[in-house]
Amino acid sequence: MAARLPHAPSPPAWQVGLALGLVYVCWSTTYLAIQEGVRTLPPLLFGGTRVMLAGLVLLAWLALRGQLVGMAGRAVVGMWLAGSLMFLGGNGLITIGQQTVPSGLASVLVATTPLWLALLEWALPGGERLPAVAWIGLLAGLVGVGFLAMARGLDSVGSAVGMLLCLGSAFAWSVGSIVTRYWPSRCSLVQTAAMHLTLGGMTMVVLGMAVGEGGVMTAERLTPSAVFAFAWLLVVGSLMGFVAYVWLLGHVSSTLAGSYAYVNPALAILIGWALGGEAITAGVVVGLAVILCGVGLVRSAHPATPPVEAAQAEPEPVAAEA
Question: Quick check: 297 and 134 in contact, CB under 8 A?
Answer without folding.
Answer: yes
